[in-house]
Design a protein that fits this description.
Number of strands: 22
CATH superfamily of the largest domain: P-loop containing nucleotide triphosphate hydrolases
Distance between the termini: 28 Å
Oligomer: single chain
Helix content: 40-55%
Number of domains: 4
CATH class of the largest domain: Alpha Beta
CATH topology of the largest domain: Rossmann fold
Structural class: alpha/beta
Strand content: 15-25%
CATH architecture of the largest domain: 3-Layer(aba) Sandwich
């Protein structure tokens, strides 16, 4: 609780310091605001477009899968979204988009003022091929320049500002001899004004891909939804839309090609093998027919026919089983149970086929030959028919293949930029300006030699601080009446009452009723304290005399509406009597001796015996004498004027003087009167929240 209160207090004090030092904070805010506006205008607007894609899981229960049976399951695929995201980020996908959208070629406007007001124009390159290898190494990679002549034409300059082509137009390709080779240059489109300049570059392809990736983002919406969101940022919204749609289309196309690639490879292999199988079938039929023509008709009995059909069936089953085994080998390891099962079934068929071969050898030779040739014909027919069926099925699969990706939303052109957030930039700039102002104020306060803590002054000097007087009327009077009389409830007057009480307590019986008041330097409020303290003592019914001992720049006569002449200096120079220099005031019991005309030797007459005798004489007629003296750090008059005082009050200004100056000033003031009781008054004091009670400058 206490810590929170302390933090609140510190913040409150900081706010007060900032308000007090507004002349530091305000320029920082204005400067930072201007910088923020310039930055907000300088940053080119960036537009963001987005597209949605769905990653579908293909089931082997699809129509193509049903048609293909076991072969169709071979081409079904299902890719998780994380895998697809990485594939999309690959150079294969992004590189194609970079090439098709010519993102390697950059045309950058160069006029700063036009950029500030977003009127810098636009030029999009299609080609910029420069034979850099034929140029000196120090010239390679430097930008070429396009200078706009009017809204339709421009001229091309090389990196040395040498004219290459004049009167160029968008949509045309230029091939110009240059450096022993050829420069190829083309602009896709432009929106320009006369006098605009563009720096032309060609990026390295990998750099262009990296630049694209920095503006491109892809993520899955939700968890395991299979919905991918593409976003892309560009300074031109139409180009951003084209680029993102190109990425989506490229990915969709490559996804379909990837899904269809295996079927295409198998189809190509079968189509290459088909003529050979057909040739084998034709050869087998020709041999069978030739044999029958040579030996004539052969009567095949029922036993032979049964052996032939059984052998043909076994060979067909063995062929189908071997195909299944080859398909399984592509999917599983040789040790997999499925492979082992196929191998066992294959061995069983081979044993049965060998047994059938033994039975056929028992037949007559003619029937064995007929059986052999018939078997070859049937086997090649089965192979040819099966291969034709597979080719047709694979063609149907390829024709119906749509990949595992579906574009839900294509990118659409937007009208509002996403960046920069101009208001946010200005607010951040103002915030940093405020921080800068606070830092300067803090450093100024830290390195300031001004003392503010009364306890610190008491500890370092050994003298008490009797009062902390807030800033009041700088003249000490309103009209010709002291502030203590006109506004007795003013908080500054309340502080002076505390000073009056402290001085009364410290004045012992028998001590001289003389109070000397001085300050370190001019304008600390010494006269304000003297006038109002005298008025407060007079208010107690005491007969008080206020002496203006500042013979050089005294001003008490102005406070009471008196003339400077006929004052202290004239009496000390024996030019007039004491009664003539004492003047009454509008305050009852308060009398004043003005400083008089400036003498040629103020220090000598204040240090004279005549001055001491005057104080002795006045003590007999007044209850209290207050001597307002000059600043002690400027002249020695103050120490001389305070020699007769029993109480010496030094007025210091809040946060104005170093502790060393305060110590030195008090030492100077007490040189001629070491027995006097000394004290301090802090004038123009500024209360902080930590002072407690929160009364501030109001009335009780």
């Amino acid at each position: 609780m206490a810590s929170a209160k302390k933090e609140e207090t510190d913040l409150f004090d900081l706010a007060k310091d900032l308000v007090k030092n507004w002349y530091i904070v305000l320029p920082c805010l204005i400067l930072s605001g201007i910088i923020g506006v310039i930055v907000a205008l300088w940053i080119r607007p960036v537009y963001q477009v987005d597209a949605l894609l769905q990653i579908e899981s293909k089931s082997n229960k699809s129509m193509a899968g049903a048609m293909m049976g076991g072969l169709g399951s071979l081409f079904a695929s299902s890719s998780p979204a994380e895998t697809e995201i990485e594939l999309i980020k690959s150079r294969q996908i992004i590189g194609d988009a970079v090439d098709k959208m010519h993102l390697q070629y950059i045309a950058t406007p160069t006029l700063k003022l036009q950029r500030l007001f977003h009127k810098e124009g636009r030029m999009e390159l299609v080609q910029l091929e420069i034979p850099w290898d034929n140029l000196p190494e120090e010239e390679r990679g430097k930008p070429w320049v396009a200078v706009v002549k009017d809204s339709l034409t421009f001229k091309l300059l090389d990196h040395n500002k040498k004219l290459i082509v004049d009167n160029c137009h968008a949509g045309e390709t230029y091939k110009i001899p240059y450096a022993g080779d050829t420069v190829t240059f083309s602009v896709l489109r432009m929106n320009v004004k006369k006098g605009q300049f563009f720096n032309l570059y060609k990026k390295n392809r990998l750099d262009a891909i990296d630049a694209f990736k920095s503006a491109f983002e892809i993520k899955e919406k939700g968890k395991k939804t299979g919905i991918l969101e593409f976003t892309y940022q560009d300074i031109y919204p139409d180009r951003a839309t084209e680029i993102l749609n190109e990425i989506a289309a490229t990915y969709l196309r490559q996804n379909v090609e990837r899904s269809n690639a295996e079927a295409q490879k198998t189809l190509e292999f079968l189509e290459k093998q088909l003529p050979e199988v057909k040739s084998q079938m034709d050869s087998a039929m020709l041999r069978f027919n030739n044999y029958r023509n040579r030996v004539g008709s052969v009567d095949i009995n029922a036993e032979t026919r049964l052996v032939l059909e059984k052998r043909t069936k076994l060979q067909q089953d063995l062929l189908v089983l071997q195909q299944k085994k080859q398909d399984a080998i592509r999917l599983f390891q040789p040790e997999h149970p499925t492979i082992k099962t196929y191998e066992e079934q294959e061995n069983a068929l081979k044993r049965e086929l060998a047994s059938n071969t033994s039975e056929s050898k028992k037949l007559p030779a003619t029937q064995q030959e007929v059986l052999k040739l018939s078997n070859e014909v049937e086997l090649t027919k089965v192979m040819y028919t099966t291969m034709l069926n597979n080719i047709q099925q694979l063609k149907l699969v390829s024709a119906g293949e749509v990949g595992s990706v579906r574009i839900i939303d294509f990118a659409e052109q937007v009208s509002r930029p996403t960046k920069p957030k101009k208001k946010m930039i200005v607010l951040i700039a103002l915030f940093f300006g405020l921080l800068l102002g606070a830092a300067i104020v803090s450093i100024k306060s830290k390195f300031s030699n001004g003392v503010r803590d009364a306890h610190f002054i008491e500890r370092e000097t050994g003298y008490s601080v009797y009062a902390k007087v807030p800033k009041g009327n700088p003249k000490g009077t309103k009209g010709t009446r002291p502030l203590a009389v006109v506004e007795p409830d003013d908080v500054a007057v309340e502080s002076l009452r505390a000073l009056r009480s402290s001085l009364e307590f410290s004045m012992d019986e028998g001590c001289r009723p003389v109070i000397g008041i001085s300050g370190l330097i001019p304008s600390v409020g010494k006269s304000f304290i003297s006038v109002n303290l005298a008025a407060l003592f007079a208010g107690l019914g005491k007969k008080v005399l206020l002496i203006d001992a500042d013979l050089r720049k005294g001003r008490l006569h102005k406070e009471f509406g008196l003339k400077r002449g006929n004052g202290l200096s004239q009496y000390l120079l024996h030019e007039t009597t004491l009664e003539d220099v004492i003047h009454s005031t509008e305050v009852e019991n308060l009398f004043v001796i003005p400083c008089g005309h400036v003498p040629s030797n103020p220090s000598e007459i204040l240090g004279s015996k005549h001055y001491s005798d005057m104080i002795d004489e006045l003590e007999k007629h007044y209850d209290l004498i207050i001597v307002d003296t000059p600043p002690i750090m400027l002249v020695t008059d103050a120490a001389l004027a305070c020699r007769q005082a029993s109480q010496i009050v030094m007025v210091i200004e809040y946060n104005k003087h170093s502790i060393e100056a305060i110590q030195d000033g008090m030492a100077q003031l007490l040189k001629g009167n070491t027995n006097a009781h000394a004290s301090f008054v802090i004038n123009k004091y500024q209360h902080s929240h930590s002072d407690g009670f929160g009364y501030k400058y109001g009335k009780y």
